[in-house]
Design goal:
Layout: E1 2-17, E2 20-34, E3 37-47, E4 62-71, H1 76-95, E5 100-106, E6 111-112
């Protein structure tokens, strides 16, 4: 199986999960391809981020949603379509856990593969 991190970016965030205050989040769009099938997943994990050097991501406050799964392959058109909706998807995923991402406060530049 080939796994591609189509997009990933760190942002300032707020959430308390498992009794731990979280100050940052890693947002991802991942594509997994195998035997003529493709799966796109949007994910977010919140972590403490105690200082500028702390990117020790914890995976207990992780939320994901499968955006597409079926026959096909990865394409720029699909990547762009899912990137256009990722903020809304992530906001919906974290709403029930009272998570908030400050989209206008990235901690690092976005990475694309």
């Amino acid at each position: 199986m080939a796994v591609f991190d189509v997009y990933s970016q760190y942002f300032e965030a707020e959430m308390t999960f498992g009794g731990v205050e979280r100050k940052a989040a890693l947002v991802t769009l991942t594509a997994e391809s195998e035997a003529g099938n493709i799966r796109y997943t949007a994910g977010v994990t919140f972590f403490p981020h105690k200082d500028e050097e702390d990117y020790e991501v914890s995976y207990d406050a992780y939320f994901e949603k499968v955006l597409f799964e079926g026959k096909g392959r990865r394409s720029k058109k699909k990547d762009e379509a899912f990137l256009n909706e990722i903020r809304d998807v992530i906001n919906e995923l974290t709403k029930d856990a009272n998570g908030k991402i400050f989209w206008d406060k990235p901690l690092r530049d976005a990475r694309y593969e």
